[in-house]
Amino acid sequence: MKILVTGGLGFIGSHTVVELVNAGYDPVIVDDLSNSDPKILDQLTKILGFTPTFHKLDLCDEAGVKSLALAEPEIGGIIHFAAFKAVGESVKKPMKYYRNNFYSLINLLEAYYGKAINFVFSSSCTVYGQPEKLPVTEDAPVQPAQSPYGNTKQIAEEILVDMVNSGSDYKVISLRYFNPVGAHESALIGELPIGVPQNLVPFITQTAIGKREKITVFGDDYNTPDGSCIRDYIHVVDLAKAHVAALRLAEKDDFKGYDVFNLGTGNGSSVLEVIHAFESTTGEKLNYEIGPRREGDVEQVWGDVTKSSTKLGWTAQLGIGEMMSSAWAWEKYIAQNPFN
Q: Which residues form the NAD(P)-binding domain (predicted)?
């Protein structure tokens, strides 16, 4: 089956392309290269032994998306990653996020409307805001979003539910990620931030390699054991495999409509714990300082992944050590093989 992977040259998308091929699917990549590098297609070729089909396209281009649907009529599934995703930037530039994240989704849904499509949506634990109870389950009430980015994920899920309830032929699974980190075991693909990283682990590895002077820990006065924010970090390869599991579930005759799953390890790690885990795993000492809280950050969140284990048939296999060591191997690869 052909699977359209939007944002397929990005961090999670590229790893998912590899796992789709491993599972026997034929991925078709769409990416506008606004937050990815075209060289990742070459890296995927090295891993896979062939070059996946690739279309350069901005999904906000309605006519372009309609042309894509005509050019790729055999698509049976869509994994929709393509979105802007930096919490801090979304607070400063909300309209940029609303325009991109909604137009791209709506154009994609309309272009393939009327066909039987298994649609896997890249959602986020940000839909929970600051949960009332931890670990947070899929049935937890959706709290007011802490950022425009989080709000785009909440509203996108509502759009998908409304579409399914209207009687469309789509089967939809929303995957609420926690914090993806790490890199492929080959060290040929990994997280490749453009400009200053917005996420913790690439900032850690760039500091360790000398690209950045120091890491700022945004706040040490939260109500957590060491005062820094707590997140559920998950290895990107585990996360990629979950998308294959989601497609398999949607393909079953008895799956109807819409469902949602948490994707995480079920355990929380603080920012300072991740820093110390990197140091102990790699032997590299990090230069870090404590700074003020960052607007839009949630204090602590980690997920209950029971439903993913029982219904999706998926559990995370890789721990914080593999996350840090693979991210470091990727950073060292980039140093020897520059992308920019």
A: 4-325
